[in-house]
Amino acid sequence: IGVSAGPECKAALQEVTHLVEEGMKTNELALKSSFGAAELKVDGDFLYFLADAAVVAFQYGNPDKLCSPLVEAKKAGQDLVSAYASYVNDYYVGSFGANVKTYNQDYLKNTTASEHNSDRLWWFQVCSEVAYFQVAPANDSIRSSKIDLRYHLDLCKNVFGDTVYPIVEATNLYYGGLRIAGTKIVFANGSQDPWRHASKQISSSDTPSYLLTCQNCGHCVDFRGCPQSPLSIEGMFFMEHNCLLLNLGVISSLYLDIVILLDLEDSDLEGDEYCMTFLLPDTFLPLSGDSKGCSSPDAVNKIRQQITEHIDLWLSQCQDGDASGRWSAI
After folding, report:
1. Nearest alpha carbon to residue 209 among 254, 246, 258
2. What's the pLDDT score for residue 272?
3. SS3 190
4. What is the pLDDT of residues 250-303, one digit of tens each?
5. In 3-state terms, what secondary structure has residue 83?
């Protein structure tokens, strides 16, 4: 986060964390209430909520929403906690749509289906497979040091019980670890996306990796353009165009979040009906999301073209050179 934030914004965020930790010692309820988070009784949950709020600005291409007012407040000697609370309430909860209760461990225990169940699903994957614990680094951290390994392990145990534990060795064995057990996968990483550091960094012929570099290039910039949230609908293509991808079984990181690959031979469904049934709602994400909002549109478009060329090649290999199967023709 510090790399994406830059030195001034990083220093302001670090000061916010320090002031919040000190404030919690004297008037915890009032402090949490100022962020609309009085329901977060576990201090770690509250501090995780505040850390996530900062991450989202960089992850989804809106760094100025966070850094500009915070740096200005610091330079003017204003109350940094109040400035950060305004950002969290107005942008993270307001515009972005984060829900405070999804940080409440008691809420995460709820197995009833709802629009916010994805947070429980994410934590289950974290707690059972990948252990993507976002632990505060020992030195020069932005997030609170209270967000440590013990916090994450306690959360997993509290929410899912004693039997759920991240078996990372088995996960790496199954998926290949550093030697990825898959081919024809594109890794497209936004330069400001904190998650890019968990992605493949070095390109290879069958699993190419690209870094889309610009001041607001975040999560899925190759699809969404800039900013990555709120999502632009410009350039959206129709759902049935993705039938080709599903039927051929061509896998790319561009599709991993939006396509469920199932065996057509085991299904009574065909064609458009099959796609309409099994493609997730995010199918409408375009490869041509508006890049004009990116600080360097040409850099984004250049990588998009290279990604398209990979997909065209892979589709031609699946379709024996049938030109109608080119991604660039869609």
Report:
1. 254
2. 35
3. strand
4. 333 333 333 223 233 333 333 333 332 333 333 334 455 789 999 999 999 999
5. helix
Contact 46, 32 (CB under 8 A): yes
Closest alpha carbon to 188 in 224, 236, 157? 224
| Collapsed DSSP state (helix, strand, coil) of residue 311 | helix
Structure tokens belonging to residue 1: 């986060």
Please name the residue ranges forming H helices in the chain. 2-5, 7-34, 43-59, 63-75, 80-87, 105-108, 117-125, 149-160, 168-175, 221-224, 243-248, 271-278, 297-318
- Give the three-class secondary structure for 212: strand
Tokens of 266: 């085991």
According to the model, what pLDDT value does residue 16 have? 98
- Which of the 8 DSSP states describes residue 154? H
Tokens 């064609």 belong to residue: 271
Residue 201's SS3 state is coil
The residue ranges of DSSP E strands in 179-235, in sequence order, are 187-190, 209-212
Specify the 3-state DSSP secondary structure of 7: helix
Burial 234-266 (b: 16+ CB within 10 A, else e): eeeeeeeebbbbbeeebbbbbbeebbeeeeeee
Please list the helix, strand and coil fractions of the chain in percent, rounded to the nearest 5, in that order: 55, 0, 40
Say which residue the tokens 């994957």 belong to. 125
Summarised one tens digit per residue, pLDDT across range 47-84 is 999 999 999 999 999 999 999 999 999 999 999 999 99
224 contacts 231 by C-beta, under 8 angstroms:
yes
Selected residue with higher pLDDT from 241 and 94: 94
Give the residues across from 188 on adjacent strands.
210
Residue with tokens 């458009």: 272
Could you give the maximum distance between any two Cα atoms of the chain, in Å? 70
Closest CA to 192 of 312, 74, 54: 54
Could you tell me which residues come within 8 angstroms of residue 217 by beta carbon, excluding any fewer than 6 positions away?
61, 190, 191, 192, 193, 226, 294, 295, 296, 299, 300
